[in-house]
Amino acid sequence: MSNLHRLRASLFLFACTLFSATAAISQSPDPTTPGRLVLVLPFENRSGDPTLNWIADSFPDTLDRRFNSSGFLTITRDDRQFALDHLGLPIDFRPTRATTIRIAQTLDADYVIVGNYNVADGRIVVQARVLQVKQLSLSAPLEDSSELPKLFDCENAIAWKIARQIDPKFPVALQTFLAAPGGAKLSAFENFIRGIESTSSVDRIKRLQASVNEAPDFAAALLALGKAQYQARQYDQAAATLAKVPADDRVTLEANFFLGLARFNSAKYADAQKAFELVATRLPLPEVLNNEAVAQSRQGKDAVALFRQVIAADPNDPDYHFNLGLAILRQGDPAHAQPEIDTALKLRPFDTEATELKSRIAANLHLTGTPLTNAIAAGGFEPLERIRRTFSEASFRQAAFQLDQVRAMRLATLPPAEQATQYTQLGNDYLAQGLVPEAEREFQTALAGDPKSAAARAGIAQVRERSGADADARSESQASLELAPNAAAYMVLARLDLKQNDLAAASTDVTSALKLDPKNGSAIGMKQQLISRGQSIP
């Protein structure tokens, strides 16, 4: 079995554990753990300038992204709009405290974030408050300000203060929030927000294209543009856009889901399968595995085993049973296909295509091979496996959140040192993907379990380095080395020394790293770099 297949098998079993454990989590909550479901409402524009109304909608977008990377679960824009429609409220209303509570209760939110902003003389001043729904208590104002072009930094700072208000033990540092990816210059950010809020498909694509033109690496805008193009049935354009989403961005899973759909609709089934497979290796949910199996089947390949995995994870979806039955039928086995079609009809009795297929299978149970295929397809009847064409951002985010909960429950049973090892590995995995806030959360959790973990301390050093806090990164590296020699900490020091043009010190750091880990790629690369600059290596 290849490493990829081992990984996928492990993740699939983990996903099945997720669905079986979700009920246990909801029925037996830890009374010491505060709720983590957060609703961010658009902030109120108090500038008197209606051209700045778009900033109101930028707060939920930025804050949601930052909270999702920090162990909170946020309520999506679509669900927020559903609640407003359900309560008969316009989207642009200004909520009173009573109305805010009604919205929160409709969506089962634990916290609601409300706020306002003012802009004068090129500066934005922001004030936010946290409503704790169960206690019906409103926090004191949380404030921040910045030059307007640094709006994204201001929003990140407010997000950090809110996180600390909700959870005083929140472990991620402010500088990590400020250095988190996802921002763009103000004009690109404005076009992005105006684009996602537009009700016109043409205007939405126009705005988002303008945002991407100004900021080609703006992952959120690339995703939104690709989805808008897909919804407009511009499948080739959508695929080209979605393929540009950076692989290390948090939205890459959603981007690849729609990339798979775009390629599928262009009949590029092999490319679609690869896109769905990438998502499945990270988050093997039934809808993703189903689409991968459908793309595989459209290439004439046997997808029965993959369809069985889908049903093992979600046995109550009629389309999944229909797909499995059809895949088995393509193998020339009507006797084993029939029970799956029967199950599909029990779950959805008025499925006319499944009813017709059941009738044809029953009439041709004695046939196999080509005669069976011809009999099923007689009269132009051509049933096809059913693909999932929608991506539920909320359900995917909730699944990822619950995976974290299940994992935390499992790790809590381990000795502290082993917990630290596991959390440090998770932190390193996040760091490799460029997910710095997520990485720091795991490293800090590791240190909480084992304050003497040199590896976790080295992880924090790398986070500080990426956040541009060089002095803190050096301090954390030295603290890590005092606990135990390790290559990761030496390499942080090497990069910091090289940044200061101290080639001799960098050389010493690299030599120390290579003694501990002779195959360390970063150390080998820096050694060559130092030699090319005339620095001898001991």
UniProtKB/TrEMBL annotation:
- Residue ranges of the TPR repeats are 420-453, 487-520
What keywords tag this UniProt record?
Signal, TPR repeat
Gene3D superfamilies according to UniProt: ABC-type transport auxiliary lipoprotein component, Tetratricopeptide repeat domain
Q: Which residues form the signal peptide?
A: 1-23
What Pfam families does UniProt report for this protein, alphabetically?
TPR_16 (PF13432), TPR_19 (PF14559)
Q: Which InterPro entries match?
A: SRFR1-like (IPR044650), TPR-like_helical_dom_sf (IPR011990), TPR_rpt (IPR019734)
What's a BP term from Gene Ontology annotated to this protein? negative regulation of DNA-templated transcription
Q: What is this protein called?
A: Tetratricopeptide (TPR) repeat protein
